[in-house]
Specification:
By secondary structure, the protein is of the alpha/beta class. It contains 23 helices and eleven strands. The structure holds flavin-adenine dinucleotide. Residues 268-272, 275-276, 311-312, 315-316, 319, 370-371, 374-375, 379, 396, 400, 402-403, 407-408, 411-412, 415-416 line the site of flavin-adenine dinucleotide (FAD). This is Deoxyribodipyrimidine photolyase.
Length: 514
């Protein structure tokens, strides 16, 4: 072979230009790496999903007639890092040209850009051909340390790709229909929640390799993986979403329940793993959704479709821009100076707080939680209790099947922890038990009372919320959207405020017993 091309685990893009032409002198490398299995402690299903999808991609390429070198942990055990493995292969096969697709993660980009290959080997970096905003254009829209409003970025993307536009105007006259969305699930709604489409991908060989190589992991293991690991399965999941879930996507986007066996998936697409591994292209997802919308004869409302498209055309591209404009500094922001350690229940789900128990348990079970669980249950809890953002990042990066740093970190450190100096959000997503109660039925079965702020049975989130608001009053009260909240705090009698603050201190000192 003359050319070695590297395909990373999140670069499973069958439509890439690399695969337009066959060339017998090119070999493709797809390798299970110890460094990737251990750069953070991952949920076992996350590692299985990546390894299974990589194996499936390797066989699809071989079947299509490409030369592929698929290595398992057994084959790569001797190599501490990717560069070592590459050096070996380059020398074994007397490679003249090494090519890789630009990684989406800063850590890997640094690693590949600093390879010191023999002078006789030429090295080329190419685009992954996945994102909608070209990499080189990121600096036109994002600047280091600067707040960028998602809504502006999103409107630019709508215009640029002519998605849901009527000329210069947004379809339906508005850019955003959230006011019509975001409902709680009633008893009747619960009966109609669709079963999620699950796959049955065998992963016992991967599990035994993880064992054999003593790869640390957590979460519930299963021989059969429910996540899509091929492009065909990813497309099936996309179509299933359009047929069964899109209709109510926005409507119940923020809803949470523990009263349905499908509570963990509800109306969410669960396409993030397929998208983040690039098995699906974002424009393919958007176009498929638009086609279903157009053919649905009015049965799917614009509010559902716009809400969904905003997540992909807007949020997903936006957090990537924030990441690249701000790395590596972004990884060490800690605006609120938070330093507490995550309590054990983040790894066991054992807590009396029903909302946290549900969100953590399902994350351990499925390597998945939907956005509001991530943001307003676990994220909000970490924000209010001042958890160290490094630990919070590590937890999110490990536990979710879709977690890759470029998308995990801006969401966690920025959006949920408000640790990034306001680069993403102008105010923290802080909420009391009221919000959880408004969007879920968790509080009904909880041992704590959401109506109370003080006393041993008071919802801990309530006092923690007020402590947080009180502590950061100087910083937050200047924001007109928050200023009002302080009026009700300031109106409380001194002793009431004190009682709430002491309940919060008690909770902070006994997090593991809550
Ligand atoms: P749906 O609700 O069906 O949404 C459709 C798609 O929109 C998703 O698949 C995703 O690609 C995209 N999307 C939606 N919201 C966001 C967002 N805020 N940022 C980027 N893309 C978005 N998403 C990840 O892909 N990986 C992560 O590691 C990750 N970590 C997160 C951590 C925190 C603290 C928070 C608050 C959010 C995080 N998200 C992450 C964003 C979002 O929660 C997930 O994309 C979503 O829950 C995935 O489930 P889904 O495919 O069913 O999404």
């Amino acid at each position: 072979y003359k050319t070695l091309r590297l395909i990373l685990g999140d670069q499973l893009n069958a439509k890439h230009a690399w695969f337009q032409l066959k060339d017998d002198s090119t070999i493709y490398l797809i390798a299970e790496l110890h460094q990737e299995a251990t750069y953070t402690k991952h949920h076992v299903q996350k590692i299985c999903a990546f390894f299974a999808a990589m194996k499936a991609f390797a066989s699809a390429l071989s079947q299509a007639g490409f030369h592929v070198c698929h290595l398992t942990l057994d084959d790569t055990a001797a190599y501490k890092s990717l560069p070592e493995l590459l050096h070996q292969l380059i020398s074994d096969h007397q490679i003249e040209v090494f090519e890789y697709q630009r990684p989406d993660e800063y850590r890997l980009l640094q690693q590949l850009r600093t390879l010191s290959l023999p002078a006789s080997v030429s090295c080329t970096e190419v685009d992954t051909e996945h994102f909608l905003l070209p990499f080189d254009e990121i600096p036109h829209h994002f600047a280091r340390g600067k707040h960028v409003l998602m809504e502006h970025f999103y409107r630019m993307m709508r215009r640029r790709f002519a998605i849901l536009m009527q000329g210069e105007k947004p379809e339906g006259g508005k850019w955003n229909f959230d006011k019509e969305n975001r409902h709680k699930l009633t008893a009747t709604d619960l009966a109609a929640v669709p079963a999620p489409l699950r796959f049955d991908n065998p992963v016992s060989d991967i599990l035994s390799r993880l064992d054999k190589h003593q790869i640390p992991h957590f979460g519930q293991a299963s021989d059969s993986l429910l996540w899509p690991v091929t492009r065909r399965q990813a497309i099936e999941l996309l179509n299933y979403f359009c047929q069964h879930q899109l209709q109510r996507f926005g409507y119940f986007q923020d809803a949470m329940t523990e009263q349905s066996e499908h509570q963990w998936s509800l109306y969410h697409s669960r396409l993030s793993f397929a998208l983040n591994t690039k098995m699906l292209h974002p424009m393919q997802v958007i176009q498929t959704v638009l086609t279903h919308y157009e053919q649905a004869d009015g049965k799917i409302s614009l509010a559902q479709v716009e809400g969904f498209i905003r997540q992909i055309l807007g949020w997903r591209e936006y957090v990537r821009g924030i990441y690249w404009a701000n790395m590596p500094d972004y990884a060490s922001y800690n605006t609120l100076d938070a330093h507490r350690n995550l309590p054990d229940f983040f790894w066991t789900g054992k807590t009396g707080m029903a909302c946290l128990k549900a969100a953590v348990s399902q994350s351990l079970h499925y390597a998945y939680a939907h956005h509001i669980q991530r943001l307003m249950v676990t994220g909000n809890f970490c924000l209010l209790t001042e958890m160290d953002p490094d630990q919070v990042d590590a937890w999110y990066l490990g536990i979710y099947v879709d977690a890759i740093e470029w998308v995990e970190m801006p969401n966690t450190r920025g959006m949920s922890q408000f640790a990034d100096d306001g680069i993403i959000a102008t105010k923290p997503y802080a909420a009391s038990g009221n919000y959880i109660n408004k969007m879920s039925d968790y509080c009904q079965s909880c041992q704590y009372s959401v109506k109370k702020k003080t006393g041993a049975d008071a919802c801990p989130i309530n006092s923690l919320y007020w402590r947080f608001m009180d502590k950061h009053q100087q910083r937050l009260a200047v924001n007109p959207r928050i200023g009002m909240i302080y009026r009700s705090w300031d109106n409380l009698a001194d002793n009431e405020r004190q009682a709430i603050l002491s309940r919060a201190e008690f909770c902070l000192n006994h997090l593991d017993q809550l």
